[in-house]
Write a structure and sequence with these properties.
Helix content is 25%, strand content 29%. The protein has 464 residues and is of the alpha+beta class. β20, α4 and β21 form a beta-alpha-beta unit. It binds zinc ion. Belongs to the peptidase M1 family. Its cofactor is Zn(2+). Pfam families: Peptidase_M1 (PF01433), Peptidase_M1_N (PF17900).
């Protein structure tokens, strides 16, 4: 019984964290129709600062609807985002088995080569294969090694469509050009303070390469990164490092392999001038896991508590939930320009520095407690979210609700359960209860959304 009540509160707290404050009750919001029209026209802007995120939260009040709007804004289909309904979910006509990515990171442009093994979900399907893609320059596309000509595919500002792909299993190779240094949306691959960094949840991977960018497409990834060795001495991606070496022209490379299938939103890449605090965790079955927390050199001394928190989280998940870490390496990156607060990419968690760094001279007890909680939260996603993931974004609250519950229990076990409970309930009362008492009240799982990012805007309330 206690668990049930806690679970409900967890879901509500999750809503505070992720602030699904953009869901509209169509009746309560009917008088906002003029505002809605503005929202629908203007919502494509970067969320590069907490201020912008808060601004986005205000401007997007009505952008996720529980019913279709009676007033449609007349704009070209290309510019008006499509409302996604839970009831319209269809399983994909094609699945991906393996995805081999190759990144040539450059100062002017980055070339992304992807090689995907595609297979139809049902034998003899004649459905087109529709790939998502935004802000990409297509260089070439090959099916089973044969380059396609312009008439063989259709390209628009958001999709690359193969109208009649081969029946049965085939290989799809796509080369694209992107410009991370000009990517101010901070979704996909972007460059900031000299480092390359990714953010793919919820729909950032489509800004890296053409892909079925949806959580029910699970594939095994390898990732080869090539870059200038002096400028980018550290090259990181998901999984285990299986190869690295030098190349001509002052370049070097690293090849990463993730043996577990994952959705594209968990893909990550980091390249830059970083240094690490290293440690080792021995799992309950006796495997040695290398732990590395990467930061700019001057911040490494401030990562001691984050490393303590990570090891405590790994041990606690074994003791309480029986969940052991499943790879040989776990990387954490903390950089000052990461806009999402924290992200649970498989084996390569990325954080904003504010959530990881602490020094005894300046950090308070609350700072230490917050680091413990957020390091734990992202680590716990390794099972609740990453290995067991969402079918679609309507299930976001399942991975987040359960993982928030786990991080609350972790913080309660390692600190004071009473103090933690008071803090959590205080957040509910201050942020969630007013929303639930007003016209913005909505179910945990909405019936539709326009842009998935809307679900995350309020995260800044907690993290910044
Ligand atoms: Zn989470």
């Amino acid at each position: 019984m206690d668990f049930g009540r806690k679970a409900i509160l967890c879901f509500l707290l999750h809503l505070v964290k992720r602030s699904v404050c953009s869901v509209k009750n169509i009746i309560g919001c009917r008088h906002f129709s003029a505002l809605e029209a503005t929202c629908r026209r203007n919502y494509w802007f970067p969320h590069s600062t907490p201020y912008r995120a808060r601004e986005a939260s205000r401007r997007l009040l009505c952008s996720v609807a529980t019913e279709s709007s009676p007033k449609q804004v007349k704009e070209s289909e290309m510019d008006v985002p499509k409302e996604i309904f839970l009831k319209d979910y269809k399983s994909p006509a094609y699945y991906f088995d393996t995805v081999d990515l190759k990144f040539l990171l450059g100062e002017e442009k980055t070339i992304v080569a992807s090689k995907i093994t595609v297979f139809p979900s049902a034998e003899g399907t004649s459905s087109p294969l529709v790939l998502d893609g935004e802000d990409l320059k297509l260089i070439s596309i090959k099916v089973d090694g044969k380059e396609l000509k312009e008439g063989d595919y259709h390209l628009d500002s958001r999709h690359l469509t193969l109208p009649s792909p081969p029946q049965g299993k085939f290989t799809l190779e796509i080369d694209t050009e992107i410009q991370p240094q000009k990517n101010t949306s901070l979704e996909g691959l972007y460059k900031s303070s000299g480092n390359f960094c990714t953010q793919c949840e919820a729909e950032g991977f489509r800004k890296i390469t053409f892909y079925q960018d949806r959580p029910d497409i699970m594939a095994k990834y390898t990732c080869r990164i090539e870059a200038d060795k002096l400028l980018y001495p550290v090259l990181l991606s998901n999984g285990n490092l299986i190869e690295q070496g030098d190349l001509e022209g002052g370049k070097h490379y690293a090849v990463w392999e993730d043996p577990f299938k994952k959705p594209s939103y968990l893909f990550a890449l980091v390249a830059g001038q970083l240094e690490s605090r290293d440690d080792v965790f021995v799992t309950r079955s006796g495997r040695k896991v290398s732990l590395r927390i990467w930061t700019p050199a001057q911040d490494v001394p401030k990562t001691a508590h984050a490393m303590y928190s990570l090891k405590a989280a790994m041990k606690w998940d074994e003791d309480v939930f029986g969940l052991e870490y499943d790879l040989d390496l776990f990387n954490v990156v903390a950089v000052p320009d990461f806009n999402m607060g924290a992200m649970e990419n498989k084996s390569l968690n990325i954080f904003n520095s504010k959530l990881v760094l602490a020094s005894p001279e300046t950090a308070s007890d609350a700072d230490y407690a917050a680091i413990l909680g957020v390091i734990g939260h992202e680590y716990f996603h390794n099972w609740t979210g990453n290995r067991v993931t969402c079918r679609d974004w309507f299930q976001l609250s399942l991975k987040e609700g359960l993982t928030v519950f786990r991080d609350q229990e972790f913080s309660s076990d390692l600190g004071s359960r009473t103090v933690k409970r008071i803090a959590d309930v205080s957040k509910l009362r201050n942020y969630q209860f007013p929303q639930d008492a007003g016209p913005m009240a909505h179910p945990v799982r909405p019936h539709s959304y326009i842009k998935m990012d809307n679900f995350y805007t309020g995260k800044f309330l907690l993290y910044f």
